[in-house]
Amino acid sequence: MFFNALNSFVVNKVVQNNRFPLWAIIALGSTALAITVSNRDRLDEKAELSQGVSQNWPFEPLPYISEQNKKFVPVSPANEAIQVEVESGESLSLIFQKVGLSDVELLNILSLNKDSEKLKNLKPGQKIKFEVSDNLLQKLVVEITNLESLIFSRQGKSFSMKREAVKPDTIIVAAGTELETSLYMDGKKIGLSDSVIMQLTAIFAWDIDFSQNIRIGDRFKIIYEKLEIKGEYYKTGRILAAEFINQANRYTAFLNIDDNGNNSYYTEKGHALQKTFLRNPVDLVRVSSRFNLKRKHPILNRIRAHKGVDYAAPIGTPIRATADGQVKYLGVKGGYGSTIELQHGGKYTTLYAHLSDYAKDLKIGSKVTQGQIIGYVGKSGLATGPHLHYEFRVNGEHRDPLTVKLPAERSINIKYKTAFEKRTSMLLSLLNHSKAHDTQETRKITQTIIRLYSKR
Ligand SMILES: [Zn+2]
Q1: C-alpha angle with apex 17: 16 to 20, nearest 5 degrees?
Q2: How many angstroms does the Cα of residue 389 sit away from the middle of ligand 1?
Q3: What is the C-alpha to C-alpha distance for residues 322 and 316, in angstroms, rounded to an integer?
Q4: At a CB cut-off of 8 Å and minimum separation 6, what does 237 contact?
Q5: Residues 127 and 207 in one domain
Q6: What are the CA-CA distances from residue 220 to residues 241, 264, 275, 369, 444 (Å)?
């Protein structure tokens, strides 16, 4: 119950250019949640919203063409702005007619450049804004996607065009719940998107076995980004912080973004959640065949990609798990012979083939730790001699095990440490709020967090 209160509390919204702070209470669709906002706050928010719109969006609230006037809307000689929303089957030519503008203007615009070609295929719901004065079209703003508009401005008898990119606003949202059915169902119940649920399982996949060890009563809290365009939901962003209590074990994760833009998660003490890999699964042996996408297969005698590395070694040489993980497959697998496949976190798998034997007691679902002996070199399957065939996959794709960039960090790099600690202490203070509320303090914190993360 305690955590249900956290179902959703605010949090904060800052328009990316930071010209003004804007905040709102975000309900995540939970029915159980009561949110209170004072009227004064609502008014403030409204005022700030319209201010934001005018600064960040070419589409100011303008009168739409009403149903009755759809056929023909005369444009008065006075300066006027009209906004229309494209309806099913409408072409730009039809819309120009409706607004009372001549085909000549339209042709001028359509022939301007390649981008204006995009105007030939309008989709229902797209917004178009006309600014007219002295019976002449002065400015045409066409929303191409949620994030991109084309702006045509009159230059004498013709038009110039510029592209305007809209940057979504970031909002920070907190959510959490106690599991009653499944992570997916309970996550959905409090309004989490599939993407956020997947991120959550990927973040903790090294420590928590989501397929077998999740229990009713486990609970989690997360702080994540929601992106909005013009006050409307656009999509969810990254999880910035998470806490998962799995059968009385507490796990935490805080996002760090390195200079190359890579996202990694660390515990509050700065330990990497993603575990490291050993480069080789067998010791003191010879690499007998490298990763090669055009190798001639020694037995099949035809070109067949070699998507792994072969280590020549005597039968019975022990094979080690290259990282902490879980047995995903154990058994005979065609030409691979006796094979073990391990899952490491959400992203990585390794495969060990042509084994002579498996480690005792190892079965599908077993947990293994880095360096643990999982089996022994052999020549089962399609093998010319005793060797270990080893594969490494990232998100299902084969990578060369000898050169793939392995997650090697055990702790956060010293150069990010100070900034990481600063953000983490703020995120922790948000995670530690036990119930829904929006105070000056949380607003300030979330604004700072958004700013810190948006720098990258
Ligand atoms: Zn091989």
Answers
A1: 95
A2: 4
A3: 18
A4: 170, 224, 225, 226, 227
A5: no
A6: 11, 19, 21, 25, 24
Question: Distance from the CA of 298 to the center of ligand 1, in angstroms?
Answer: 10
Domain boundary among 165, 186, 211: 165
Is 247 exposed, middle or buried (CB count within 10 Å of its CB: 0-12, 13-18, 19+)? exposed
Dihedral pair phi/psi, residue 235, rounded to 5°: -165, 170
Task: Please count the other Cβ atoms lying within 10 Å of the Cβ belonging to residue 424.
Answer: 23
CATH code where residue 304 lies: 2.70.70.10
**SS3 state at 279:** coil
Distance 218 CA to ligand 1 centre (A): 42
Q: Residues near 214 by Cβ (< 8 Å), separated by ≥ 6?
A: 179, 182, 183, 208, 246
pTM of the model: 0.61
Q: How many angstroms separate the alpha carbon of residue 289 from the centre of ligand 1?
A: 7
pLDDT in tens, the chain (456 residues): 444 333 333 333 333 333 222 222 232 322 222 222 223 333 333 333 333 222 222 222 222 222 332 333 333 444 578 888 999 888 888 888 888 888 888 888 888 888 877 888 888 989 999 998 877 889 999 988 888 889 999 998 888 999 888 888 888 888 888 999 989 899 999 889 988 998 998 899 888 888 778 899 999 999 998 888 878 888 898 999 999 999 889 999 999 988 888 888 999 999 998 888 888 898 766 777 788 877 777 776 677 788 999 999 899 988 999 998 999 999 999 999 999 999 998 889 999 999 999 999 999 999 898 889 999 999 999 988 999 999 999 999 999 988 888 876 689 999 999 999 999 998 888 887 654 456 677 777 777 887 777 765
| Domain assignment of residue 62, yes or no | no
Beta bridge partners of 223: 174, 241
Distance of CA 336 from the midpoint of ligand 1 (Å): 9
User: Residue 265 carries which side chain, given as an amino acid letter?
Assistant: Y
Tokens standing for residue 107: 């042709």
Both structure tokens of 97: 């007619």
Cα of 312 vs centre of ligand 1, distance in Å, is 10
CA distance 412 to 207: 18
The rounded Å distance from CA 360 to ligand 1 centre is 24
Residue with token string 């055990």 = 410
Q: How many CB atoms lie within 10 A of CB 360?
A: 6
**Token reading at 91:** 């072409």
288 Cα: distance to centroid of ligand 1 (angstroms): 9
The total domain count for the chain is: 3
Q: Provide the domain limits for residue 221.
A: 4-12+169-274+417-454
CA of 256 to the centre of ligand 1 (A): 37
- Indicate the helix (H) or strand (E) that contains 186: helix 183-189
Same domain, 290 and 388: yes
